[in-house]
Amino acid sequence: MATTPSDHLSNSIEFLMDEGPTSITSALAHRYPDGEMDTFEQLTVMKMLLCIRPPSPLIPDQILASIDAVLQHERNQKLLTHSSSIPPLTTYRSPTSKNSTAVNLSVWKGDITTLCGATAIVNAANSRMLGCFKPQHKCIDNAIHAAAGPRLRDECDVLMKAQGSEEPVGLAKVTKGYCLPAEHVIHTVGPQLGQGMKPSVADIDDLRRSYSNCLDAAEDLEPMADGSKVLVFCCISTGVFAFPQDLAANIAVESTKKWVNEHPATTITDIIFDLFLDTDFEIYSKLLSPSSLTSTPTAQNPIKTDTSLHTAAKWLAEADTLIVSAGAGLSASTGLDYTSTSLFSTQLHGYKKYGFRRLYDLFGPISWPSEQVKWGYYFHHLLMIRNWPKSEVYADLLKLTQSFKEGRVHVRTSNADGFFVKNGFAEKSMSTPQGRYEYLQCEKPCRKDAYFASAPFLDDAIPFLDPTTQELTDGSKVPKCTFCGGGLILCVRSGNAFTDIPFRKGEERWKEFRRTVLQKKEELTVILELGVGMSTVGVLRWPNEDLVGRGVGRVKLIRVGLENSGVVDWDMENAVGVKGDVGGVLKTLSDVRGVRWD
């Protein structure tokens, strides 16, 4: 009988593999010939098999219970946002009555499946109302069904069989939330347009009906235990269904206000518009509060017991020593996301004509048209890093590190951006094994000490950077090695040519710090791993796990990040994962020192 989350996960996958399509299970067997998968891979496979699985035949109760246990355990490892921490941009009430209900209207940008303290969340469904059966689709229908579990599809199937036909556009159906933090899900089918199509009058009316019928459905639900009734809307019909963002937002807000006008005694207390894109956030913010384009929580999210976040808080509060182990996810939480196409379009627009779309596209060997084109890119990249503002994310992390005694914190990062130093961290307590943009080095290299500060080269080049093409217009400003006259490259680890001399002192500090940690038998060390993915697992991730093993209970690992960056193997002792944006987790953990977390 399954007793642990890992057991439940194994049982669920075994059942789903046995009954799954041969083409899928054969492909999985080929990919994992020895059957060995880490926890993140197991979760991915389980959700993929559930996504493609029809509601019939029914999953046996024992397996359903195991899947529930897995999803509930996963939920306890996520950073959840309580609706009460989202401040209203405006309070709206019907003008038809002096005693009309005041309804708070808010906007929030985040994962709707991590919002707790919600009576219902809205799902933009398709006409079959059974969820999306394509695992590769990043739609909200998939996200909600994956987090809720198969019982949600089962209930939808019962409703649709009773109806006997596909769901019309503009109506709403209510189900339980199951493994979601929200109590209920309201499903609605909005109008679906082709890309570039202009909505018809009928499409506009259908979208209005979707919003009003969702509000009607929410009105019929019972308030939560605290008396509040919170409805969370997604952006219905935008995204893959191609309804224009501006028009959809106006319809959403106008339809909501019209409904409140017509229901002065409504029991709905809060309506939150959950948004995925920055552009949507700006549009809704302007519509609801023209004087404010920002929304920050007015209250800290509570840390619930029996969650990985609570365990993390307890360990940090008790720790004598802290190791901050930071990867690309930390920089991404400040906006420097190397996978972002919008960031690239804003900062490196001149290089889209060469087929590049993300900063990550320019990692590794590239055949540049010329040295001036190449260095136009690198200088603009360095200029972007130089001008990047200080971040509240780093301020929260700095606050946490400053609660430890002098000499009891070491920062080890694979990031080359230098943001730790920029945000006030002492370099004497750091190591950067992958290098830093602070230096350029000889591409050969011609000698061990052939490295140079990048700032003077950048300063000389700035007047000759074309603002349109972003290319370097003066060939004499292409950096050359002072010793051999050869070309220079960024001093970051990307091959055997990497010059590590500027970073050796940091490596010596790290080795000594690590040695001391293992020698202190009676003290607790916590590794706070932030946004470390799988691209260079041998630099941070695996060494962190090794240090936990060597610590024999005296070294704990807190792994924070999105997707696999926030997951530890569930069988690993003295380690927890917290799935969520690094900045949001740090905001929650920045004040945990000095508090008892029994």
Task: Give a written overview of the molecule.
Mean pLDDT is 93; it is low at 291-298. The protein has three domains: 5-75, no CATH class; 81-288, Leucine Aminopeptidase, subunit E, domain 1 (3-Layer(aba) Sandwich); 303-336 and 388-433 and 504-598, 3-Layer(aba) Sandwich (Rossmann fold), CATH 3.40.50.1220. It is built from 19 helices and 18 strands. Helix 1 (5-19) packs across helix 3. Strand 16, helix 18 and strand 17 (555-561) form a beta-alpha-beta unit. A seven-stranded mixed sheet has the order 2-3-9-8-5-7-6, with helices on both faces. A six-stranded parallel sheet has the order 12-11-10-16-17-18, sandwiched between helices. A three-stranded antiparallel sheet has the order 14-13-15. The chain is globular, with a radius of gyration of 26 Å. By secondary structure, the chain is α/β, with parallel strands linked by helices.
CATH architecture of the largest domain: 3-Layer(aba) Sandwich
Secondary structure tally, helices: 19
CATH topology type of the largest domain? Leucine Aminopeptidase, subunit E, domain 1
Q: Determine the CATH superfamily of the largest domain.
A: Leucine Aminopeptidase, subunit E, domain 1
Number of strands: 18
Rough shape?
Answer: globular
Global Rg: 26 Å
Q: Class by helix and strand content?
A: alpha/beta
Mean pLDDT: 93
Distance between the termini: 30 Å
Strand percentage lies at 5-15%
Q: State the name of the first-level CATH class of the largest domain.
A: Alpha Beta
Q: What share of the residues lie within helices?
A: 25-40%
Q: Describe the largest sheet.
A: 7 strands, mixed
Largest beta sheet: strand ordering: 2-3-9-8-5-7-6
Low-pLDDT runs: 291-298
